[in-house]
Amino acid sequence: MNPIIDIIRRKADEYYSEVVAIRRHIHKHPELSKQEKNTMDFIASKLSEYGIQYKDNVAGFGIVGIIEGRDKQAICIALRADMDALPITETNKVEYCSANPGIMHACGHDVHMACLLGAAKILNGLKDQFRGTIKLFFQPSEETYPGGAIQMIEAGVMENPKPAYVLGQHVFPFLSAGQAGFRPGMFMASTDEFYITVKGKGGHGAMPQTAIDPILIASHIVIALQQIVSRNANPLVSTVVTVGKITGEGRTNVIPDTVRLEGTVRTFDEGWRSEVHKLIRTIAGGTAEAMGGSCDITIDRGYPYLFNNEEMTQRLISVAGEYLGESNVKPMEAKMGAEDFAYFAQQAPGCLFGLGIADPAIGIGPNLHTAGFTVDESAIKTGMGLMAWLAVNLLNSNR
């Protein structure tokens, strides 16, 4: 066995209870995107306690920590965790349930932060065992456009020194605790949001001939948009066009003046992504005009697709097998979900891998972004230890 693996495993065992307590504190005190002030202060207090230098208030409430190994002139790598919670009311009955009404860590960002703090404590005690520099990115606002990753990059976190690799992990309820999942190449889709305000002419529900019904127009638009995937998209290019919200403030006998549609677009092809935007505008505008109405269309361009560097990821698959055992390293399929880690992976070879959180005894629990989302906390030991081991390997394998 590699002696560093043995040290990291022992330290992960030693720090486990402390890091679980960190996760529970963060979980109990979630903060939404662009509001992560108390979370930032808590992380800063832990970095100070561990003797790790840091800069806070980066791109809002982000933090960048620095751990320097034996030769700080050697390569630099970055480890990233996201910080923000979601506007969801938690239904779990646990002592560390969210104390902030209507806000919940339902995407595992509390676990990500706790694991990175645990890995940081382990790595700070191993500074004589690796060469180079480790940057710790605690990134705000992953859940809200334009995303904290691009804002941190614009603030200069990928410079002085420039990371040669960027590594992140994300909890996945479809993997058991103790497992990790990797996918080289295309991993997550680009994501855009569209907002369509359909304009008609309101009227009495019993006299529809006097109105231009925006509800009817909106209904045709929703149906027509489905042809983008079924008839315009190359069947070999994964595409999603979903209308997730329809708002029409009428009544049983009131035809409203306007109806609002909100939806998302996901794909893995940048050229086709732009073409989808054009089709949405053409289809929605043409349908509304043909039915006597009109519409205003806004499309917010979100995160690019996430591409895991193939050479780096294949290497990490082998390295993870040394730490977890090869049977606990699982291949992952491409996901239509999105991640602004993609911006970091555009700046340097990057890999976002999956951390298993399902309790093997009961199987898969509630999914991400749900009010009952929870984790098997033994995954935290895996997450912090594996992150530390992968970081050491990336540094020591580059001369």
Descriptive labels:
399 residues; alpha/beta; Aminopeptidase; Alpha-Beta Plaits; 8-stranded mixed sheet; 4-stranded antiparallel sheet; 16 strands; elongated
Q: Care to describe what's here?
A:
The chain folds into two domains: 3-188 and 305-396, Aminopeptidase (3-Layer(aba) Sandwich); 190-301, 2-Layer Sandwich (Alpha-Beta Plaits), CATH 3.30.70. The protein is 36% helix and 26% strand. The chain has helices spanning 3-28, 37-50, 109-124, 148-154, 214-225, 227-232, 270-290, 310-324, 341-347, 378-396, and strands spanning 53-58, 62-68, 76-82, 133-139, 165-176, 180-182, 185-188, 190-199, 203-204, 239-247, 254-255, 258-267, 294-301, 306-308, 329-331, 350-358. The strands form four sheets. It has an eight-stranded mixed sheet with strand order 1-2-4-3-5-16-6-15, sandwiched between helices. Strands 10-12-8-13 form a four-stranded antiparallel sheet. The two termini are 22 Å apart.
